[in-house]
Each structure stands twice: as C-alpha cells, then as structure tokens.
User: What shape does this take?
Amino acid sequence: MKISGSLRSGFMWTLNAKNSILIVWFCIFILVLVFVFPLRRSLTTAFGASMITGKLADGINIEAFTDLGPAFKSIMSFFTAGLMFTFLAGFLLNSFLTAGLFGNVRKDSVKCSSSEFFGMCAGNFGAFLLISLLITLIIGIAFLFIIVVPAAIVSLSETVSDKSQFVTMVIAGSVFLLLLPVMLLVADYSRAFKAANEDASAFSAIGKGFSFAFSNFRESYMMMLLLILAQVILGVIVMLLLPGWRPVTGGGVFLLLIVSQLLFILRLFLKTWRYASVTSMMNEIEAGNTRTIDKMEL
Amino acid sequence: MKIRLVLIIILSNVFLSLYPQIVNLKPLSERITGYKLDVRLNPDKKTVTGDMQAFWVNRSADTVPDIRLHLYMNAFRSNRTTMYREMGGSPGNDEKDLGWIEINSFSDKNGADLIPRMQYISPDDGNRDDRTVLRVLLPQPAMPGDTVIINVNFETKLPSRIRRTGYSGDFYFVAQWFPKFGVYEPAGMRYASKGGWNCHQFHATSEFYSNHSVYDVRITLPASHVVGSGGMLISEKADGNMKTVTYRAEDIVDFAWTAWPGYAVFNDKWKNVNITLLMPKDRVKQAGRQLSSVKHALEYLDMNVGPYPWPHLTFVDPPNIGAGAGGMEYTTLFTSSSSYFVPPFFHMPEMVTVHEFGHAYFMGMLASNEFEEPWLDEGVNSYWEEKIMDTYYGNNSGLIDHRFLKFSDVSSARVSYVTSPSRQLVSNNEYSWNYPHGTYGMMSYQKTAIWLHTLEGIIGTETMNNVFREYYRRWAFKHPSGRDFINVVNDVVRKEHGQEFGPDMNWFFDQTLYGTGICDYKVSGIVNSKYSKPEGKTDTADAEVRAWSSTDSLYISKAQLERVGEVKLPVDVLIHFDNGDEVLERWDGKERYKDFEYKGYKQIVWVKIDPEYKIKMDVDYVNNSMTTEPSKAPLHRIANKIMTFTQFFLSIMLL
Ligand SMILES: [Zn+2]
Assistant: This one.
C-alpha cells in the first residue's frame, strides 16, 4: 500500500508546488529562448523573400536547407554548438531548480513563495550539482558497458549473424532500460534526503540514496515504473500530436507554441510528481524504520 | 590426320556446347566470345580450379597478332596492385587472405603450348605489380573471320577480404574469377581510330566491358551449399558429400556464382521471368520487400526502355559476413544489400535492388565501357533507379517515407551533387580511375543522373522515354559509346520537337557532360513603381496618357532575373500579380540577366524561375523565387519545434 499512498501524497504535494513548477518552466523557457531566438533569426534571414519555404509546409525538406549552401553550414554549426551550450547550462540550471522543487514537495512546505523557492535552490545547489554529476556519470558508465561495448564487439565480429547482432542489441537495450529506474531512484532518494537534511553532505546523501533504494526495493522500483509509464504516455501523446502538426499561418503557429508549452509544463508536473512520490516513499521508509527502532527499544 | 580428327572433335565439342539455344529461342547478341568452364570449389584451400575452353571470333577486318585476357583475381595478390593502390588498404599478408589466379596450362586449338607466349601487361598505369591483364601472342595471327580457341587450366584463390568477390567462412561469392577476353575494337567502333584490344586493368572503381557471351559452367562443390548463379540450372547431381551443378547462360557479359549453406531460397515470377532470391534464413521477413522491388523495376524498365529478354533472374542478399559482395551486378545475377532489421519506411534495400537490377539494361544489354565512360553505366542507371523509386515508393518519399521525414531518391542524388565542394573539379566524361579527390561517385552517379533529370525537364518525359526506347532498339546487345547515346538524343528530339531546341542537343551535353560549370538562376528583384505622368516637353505624352483611363493606380512592374552559373539552359518563369493574374514566360537563359517588364493596374507579388523544379541541375533552389509577401510561418513553426524539442530533450536527459 506504500505505493498508492506515496503516489497520492506525492500528487497532492505536486499540486501545491504548482507555482514552483511554473517558475521552473519559465527559467527553462528563457534558457532555450536564448538559443532558439537567434537560430530563428538566422533561418528567416537565410531564406529571405524566397518562396522555397512553401516546400517546408509538409515538414522538413532536406533539399530546401542544403540549397542554402554556406548559410546552411553556419546554421548547422550554430544549432549543434547552441544545443551543446544549452545542455551544459541546462545541467547547472536543472541542479539549481530541482533543489527548489525537492524542497517544495514536502509535507511541511506546502506553501512556497518565489523567494523561498529560490532560497532552497541556492541552499542545496552545490550538493544537488554533485549528486547529478555523479549519478549521470554512473549512468554514462553503465551505458558504455551495457550498450556501447557489446555493440562494438558484435559489429566488429565477422561471424555473428545480423539476427544475433540485432537480438544482442535488443537485450542490451532492455537491460539498460531496466537499470535506469534504479539509477533514477538513487538520484531521487539522494536528493530527497539532502532536501530533508540540510547538514548532510552530498556523498552521504548518495549513500543514503542507495540504501533507501535497496531497503525497499520492490515497492520503490514498481512505483518508479508507474511514474515512468505516466511520462511515457505523455511522450507518446507529444509525438503523436506535435511533429505532424504543421500550421501554415501565424495564428496557427502561435497556437502550436501554446499547446507545446502546456504539454511541456505537464511534463514538468509529472517529473515533479516523481520527486514528490519518492520523497513521500522516503518518509514512509523512515517512519517504518523509526517504528522498528521504537519496537526494539520497547 | 590424327591432329585434324582431334581438331574436329574439339571444335564440334566447343560449338555444340556453345551455339545451340537453350535459354532463348534466338541468340540475342553477336556472341564474339564464349566460355565453357568445368571447375571444382575446394572449401579447405578456398580455391576454384578447373578447365576453361573459350573462343574469340575475329569479326574485324584486321589481322590480330594477340589476344588479351582479364585476370581480375590478381588484384588481390598484394597491396601494390592497381586496385589496392587506388583504394588503399591491403588484401592481407597471410596466404589465406590473398587472392590470385594461376594459369597451369594454356594451349590453342592445335594443342600448342602458349605459356611461353604469355606476358602480363599494364596498359593503364604501367604498374609492374599489377597482373590483371594477360597478353598472349598467338602462334599465327588471327585473320578476319578466324576463331581463336583456347584451353586453359587455372587455379583461382579467393580473397578473404571480400570486395565484390571472395569468401568468408563457408560463404563464397565467386565473381571476376576466370580468364576473360577483353573486347577487340576495330577502327570505327566507339572511339577507336584503329583496331586494338580494349582490356583495362582491374581498378577500384569500375568493373565491366565485355562481349556478350554464352557460358556453359559445371561446378563441383560441397553438397550442403546452396548455389545461385547468372545462368539457368541445367542439372544437379549429388555424389556423396559433393554435388555437381551445371548452368547455361546466354548473351550476358559476365558469369558469377555464389554458394553458402545458410541461404533460404524464394521463387517468384514476373510475366515469363522466373525470379529466384537467395537470402540469409533469418531475413525471410524481408523477402517480400525485395521481390516486389525487383518486380517494380522489371515492369518500369520493360514499359519505358525495352523488354527484359531472359526467362530467369537470380538475386542475392548476402549475409553480414559477405556484405562486401553486396550491391553488384552480373546482369542475370545481381546482389542487393540489407540486414536483419530495416525499418519499413527506409527503402535502402529496395533502392539497391532496383539499382543493381537496372544494370541488366545499362551495362548488361547496353554494354557500354564502364572503365572509360562510367557515367553511361552508373549515371544512366542511377537516373532510372531514382525514377523507379520515386514512382513506386512516393514522389517525395522514394528513399525515406516516414511521418516526420520524407526524402525522395532524386533529392538524395541532387543533395549529394549540390553539396559537394568538388562539383566543378572535373568534367563528367573521365575514365573511372581519373576522377580526382574522390569525386568518382558524385560525378559518375549523381551528377549524371541530375543532368539527365534536367534533360527530361527540358524535352519532356515522353520524349525522354522515347530516347531510351530508341537507344535500346539501336544498341541493345552492342557496345554504345557516349557519342552514340547523344546521337540518339539528337535524332529523337529532332523528330519530336523539330528545331525547338536548335539543330541538335549538343549544346546541352557540352555544358553538362563535357563541361564543369554549374547551373544557377536567380530572381534578384521585384520592382513595382508607380507610373509617373509625363512632365516637361515630351512629344508622345498626350497619346501615352490617353491610352490609360487613369494613371493613379498604374504601375510599371519588373521581374529582375540573373544567371549566376555558367550553364545556360532555357527556363520557365512564372509571374504572379496582385489581381490574381499569372504570366508564364520563357527565358532562353543565355544572357547574364533578364528583366520582364509589365505596365498595368497591377503589381507583381511573386516570381518563380522553373516553378516545377524541372531543372534539377540548378544548385540553389532558394534563390529561384522571390515574393513581396514572404511567409515566415513555416520557419517560425520549425523554430518552435526546435524549442519544444530542446525543452523535452533537456528534461529527459537531465535527472
Ligand atoms: Zn551501379
């Protein structure tokens, strides 16, 4: 019953943290805008008064872009460099903002002003950054050993049939996907613990993250799977709705922007629900531990 | 007397086996050469050994002192051969890796030993480490009408690093494997000013120039192997662990075969053509895709070029271990390329199948010289491949047909030409190994295909089809040159369009095939200026003003066009006015600029050069049009989507 209880209280706390979620959305929006706005400018400048943009009505038209010649090359290098920069800046920003979110989605902080939110962000930024870095590193290493190494081995081997190659990669991918919720649990428990224990160091929080994740593994893992499932459903909706939606008028494009941003806010909501549910589950585990200790003392 | 008897027996043996018709009712070609091969595959030594009896008929008026033969497999002897020098890398250092062909005995019809008369020559580059061309001085020169018969015992060692040909484990693709005659070109044939052998070395980038021949081939090999070849199976006899298969092929330019125990065999039929597909057993789900694509190609080329005349066709989708054999053509046998899982929206396997089958026409039947005019083989074939793919798999989606991304086959060729920084480095008319800086593929495949599409845009699709129907009618089972193709174009265009494009189309080929220029037309401006009433002392002012009821909303509008590139082609220009009027103009495209001027109660809104994008050679479609009311919506939409993508990407990638 811990799962539904945690999900329920997590959901309520997330609803209470709606202001914080909007702040997070706004910060990410501004960050991405810094990258996308100049890109949009260079696109409109490059195409100028050409009517080739009509060819883009049916989606991306590779020819229309490659015909830009040198302008296309500079747009592409701006795109890749911009995406990389946004990712790095996003890493820092995300560590900062999740510190606020984890601080918010707790029983004792249902109401949270923006200054309180940013206070929590700043207070735990360093530790959250370290936790994110370490867990990302662990995920990266796991990816290397579970996906990249087997892929390299089977592709270099001359005797492995292509069916075996395919099956190997499917198995490797599945193993990685099954491991991913565990890493997310560790990351979330670590940060939930850190948010609840200001004095704890990042390393001890990660240690706690592992111990929480494995002390109540089956329920934690099932809950994480359910939370991921919710995000996957949203992802499917987004993929069905957005890429094929190709408005041709300014009004249509504006509507697309609004709907896209609403869907992204929903995504942030679901992610925060994950943080909140894991926090709630942590509280349950801690309470259970305390009861056990109490019983022992009796 | 005895010698005569032996001679008669040998001759009748050769001719009986080579001349009777088995595959088709009548010979399709002149059959200047013919081969009878009896060989054995040794799976331990990776060799093919046996006897070959072959003939060459001197159909020229020349007295020919020698014969020349390709010994392609010697390209795998070392990393110093011409093929390895050109492409880099090495066949390996180990005996099991190398490939070679050794002549054990070589005699003429009289039994005279010709081995002392053999000499390895390198007519293309003088490379003494290349033994891919053998010259044999005949004991008596071949007089006009003579038939030269040779008996050869040879051993071919297959290379382990498959490039078109070779072995991997128990997979064999045996191509370019026996001593094969070059083509004797008498004066007047193609570009020959005097008679001589056209027999090039084995290069990294080209494969074929041969006479159409009859092949009778007997192969003995392990019984467990499934065999496919360019011939029709005549018999199969098992003997213990081994079996002997006999094939007959008629009027093809090369005979190749494959053997592997892992093949699954599929049979299908198109009209009277029996189609056989060999593919790895675990790829069976893809058999339908492969078979339908080859039937599309058969149907389209039959309809628009000419009939496929053989009743059999075999194609192979080699396993991963033999991937190096993929994407090759041996007329009635060809290889595709695929893998266990290829998403259905990605039509790469179909494209390779259509392309390699197309070579049955462009090289197989219309046997041009791929060494010297690769464009006439690869380029013409790519043009048809693109037409077939975009016809059967969607006009915008011949290559990729996904909800999020569509890409036509012709666009993919155009993109590769347009984006190549070396697109002006060299003309399109080079020997295959003379293309510098890695431009062989882009030039001989893509650029050629793109200017052929452009030619179609100028003369029309039906005329273009008639050009190829005529090219087929005149040149199938012969050896056309690029000049011959151009002559066909000139004749058909003159017949169907009179003098519309001038006395001939040479101006087109001079710029595209023989030239290095690019084509780029541009709309440089739209000017709508208010009509200014006559002022001062003008003599015509009264009449001018009287002609217009009101001069208040009268405009002088100009569409300003420029020719940026060197190539001059006639182009359509579509001009749209604010009152809905549209004018289609024709510009011969010769001057550096052109203004179309209009006077009336209307203003130009937009101008499009080549509105239907028929001039595929134009390297920049962006500047082909201009509007006074540009729509930014599609670009803003793309920017929006990049933004949403980036937001979700960050949210998913960051914890
Ligand atoms: Zn080809």
Remarks:
- Residues 633-653 of chain B form the longest helix (21 residues).
- Residues 385-512 of chain B form one domain.
